[in-house]
């Protein structure tokens, strides 16, 4: 076997800075940049989030990594070289240097949905180690350098994610009110010089395993310590301006639109919403992967019922039926081991974006929203079944109320998602009854599914 991956040609100059170096970023934004017709002009400097590990591994192989596209018929392998620097997220000096350079035109983010939750009553701390805190400090460095405008592109699963990012960044930049010193006027500068692009991103990318690393070594003849395995499908929809330019991502299939909301909702509700339902119902019933859960009639019926409700609130122009059919095929790809435990993280944040909008829309239309209610019930069933405790921004609150019994517990947990919903005793009673459909692992039939809320 040959040595580790190493570059044999000059790397592209850094013009994109990315926060959140992980598997999805590499299978998606980095892949799209590699496949742009002007890729030689657009190198990416990617910073890690909480830990430096990914940067350490990638830096040792010049930022190169293998994308393994895994279909039902086999695997294909491609070396991607668009990441030209892989950097520890704690290296704030390098981040400010790069963002402060006029050569940098785009900042992309994959920092997870929970990272955008900033309390407007208390603001934030620019000296914090949060991803958005580092971003604001870097934008201040650009202001001081006079490097001109640029675009910030949120690639996390949030509705209106460009606007959410803009609001969070401006809140941090202006806190505390009436500030003076080096950050005075920063919010105003950001508002005038930074565009916030909204996106819808889609490519199922599970965590890399030791077996994946061994597969690349055996199949390709080189050692790659950081490959990513992903599905052949990929989708990227963007809306917003790029005042300093951007790669020709459309050459790789990216779509630029004026109104992104329908695309956001289709993806958040149908794909991400189904993922959450499969994660919580599947884990409750002893499954480990998306494909396993989809083969369980209880879990699949819960997904289909939720999809029926969500589809009523999506425009016909998006061809929702074809999208649903494609999702079933993608979810059923057993060669992509998308682990439910990974999807189950940060449930309170995800359910607010993936399920509550559908529930509220159904109830506003005079319907009970049992499909969305059942999705919440699956989360409650999962919380009853897990012994390790939830990985969630509200984990302490969840643990404090999860020991309650019956409707008191249900009410308290629903209140963590939406306090107003928890005051609806009829809805709470439905959710309380619906969760029992997921309580028995591997039933002989699916009769339990229809016992409540019909």
How would you characterize the overall build of this protein?
- The chain is of the alpha/beta class and 454 residues long.
- The chain is built from 19 helices and eleven strands.
- It folds into two domains: 14-256, Rossmann fold; 261-450, N-(1-d-carboxylethyl)-l-norvaline Dehydrogenase, domain 2 (Orthogonal Bundle), CATH 1.10.1040.10.
- Helix content is 43%, strand content 13%.
- The protein has an eight-stranded mixed beta sheet with strand order 5-2-1-6-7-8-10-11. A three-stranded mixed beta sheet has the order 4-3-9.
- The longest helix has 24 residues, at 261-284.
- It is globular.
In short:
With 454 residues, the chain is an alpha/beta fold. 43% of the residues lie in helices and 13% in strands. It folds into 2 domains: 14-256, Rossmann fold; 261-450, Orthogonal Bundle (N-(1-d-carboxylethyl)-l-norvaline Dehydrogenase, domain 2), CATH 1.10.1040.10.
Topology:
Elements (H helix, E strand, L loop, with lengths): L13 E6 L3 H5 L1 H6 L8 E5 L5 H7 L5 E7 L2 E7 L2 E5 L4 H8 L6 E4 L21 H15 L4 E5 L6 H13 L12 H8 E9 L7 H11 L7 E3 L4 E5 L15 E2 L4 H24 L5 H5 L2 H15 L8 H12 L8 H4 L3 H8 L1 H9 L5 H16 L9 H8 L3 H12 L7 H10 L20
Parallel strand pairs: 1-2, 1-6, 2-5, 3-9, 6-7, 7-8, 10-11
Antiparallel strand pairs: 3-4, 8-10
Key descriptive features of the protein:
454 residues, alpha/beta, Rossmann fold, N-(1-d-carboxylethyl)-l-norvaline Dehydrogenase, domain 2, eight-stranded mixed β-sheet, 43% helix, globular, disordered C terminus
């Amino acid at each position: 076997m040959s040595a580790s991956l190493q570059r044999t040609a000059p790397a592209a100059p850094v013009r994109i800075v990315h926060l959140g170096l992980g598997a999805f970023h590499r299978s998606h934004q980095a892949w799209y940049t590699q496949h742009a017709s002007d890729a030689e002009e657009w190198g990416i400097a990617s910073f890690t989030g909480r830990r430096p590990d990914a940067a350490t591994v990638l830096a040792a192989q010049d930022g190169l990594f293998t994308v393994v596209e895994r279909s039902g018929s086999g695997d294909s392998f491609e070396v991607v070289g668009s990441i030209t620097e892989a950097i520890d997220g704690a290296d704030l000096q390098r981040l400010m240097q790069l963002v402060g350079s006029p050569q940098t035109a785009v900042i992309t983010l994959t920092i997870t949905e929970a990272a955008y939750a900033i309390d407007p009553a208390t603001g934030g701390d620019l000296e914090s180690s949060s991803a958005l805190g580092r971003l604001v400090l870097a934008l201040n460095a650009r202001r001081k350098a006079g490097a001109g405008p640029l675009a910030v592109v949120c690639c996390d699963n949030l509705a209106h994610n460009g606007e959410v990012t803009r609001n969070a960044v401006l809140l941090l930049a202006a806190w505390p009110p009436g500030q003076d010193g080096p950050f005075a006027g920063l919010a105003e500068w950001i508002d005038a010089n930074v565009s916030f692009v909204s996106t819808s991103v889609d490519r199922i990318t599970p965590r890399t395993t030791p077996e994946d690393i061994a597969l690349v070594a055996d199949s390709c003849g080189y050692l790659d310590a950081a490959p990513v395995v992903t599905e052949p499908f990929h989708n990227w929809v963007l809306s917003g301006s790029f005042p300093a330019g951007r790669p020709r991502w459309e050459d790789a299939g990216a779509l630029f639109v004026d109104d992104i909301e329908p695309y956001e909702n289709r993806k958040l509700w149908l794909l991400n919403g189904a993922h959450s339902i499969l994660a919580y119902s599947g884990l409750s019933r002893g499954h480990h992967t998306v494909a396993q859960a989809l083969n369980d009639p209880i879990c699949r019926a819960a997904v289909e019922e939720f999809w029926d409700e969500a589809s009523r609130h999506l425009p016909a122009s998006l061809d929702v039926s074809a999208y649903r059919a494609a999702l079933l095929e993608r979810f059923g790809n057993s060669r992509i081991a998308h682990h439910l435990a990974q999807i189950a993280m940060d449930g309170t944040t995800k359910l607010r974006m993936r399920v509550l909008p559908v529930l509220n829309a159904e109830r506003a239309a005079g319907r009970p929203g049992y499909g969305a209610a059942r999705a919440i019930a699956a989360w409650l069933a999962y919380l009853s079944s897990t012994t390790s405790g939830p990985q969630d921004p509200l984990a302490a609150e969840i643990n404090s109320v999860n020991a309650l019994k019956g409707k008191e517990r249900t009410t308290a947990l629903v209140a963590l998602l939406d306090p107003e919903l928890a005051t609806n005793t009829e809805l709470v009673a439905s959710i309380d009854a619906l969760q029992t459909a997921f309580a028995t692992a591997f039933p002989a039939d699916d009769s339990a599914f229809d016992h409540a809320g019909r």
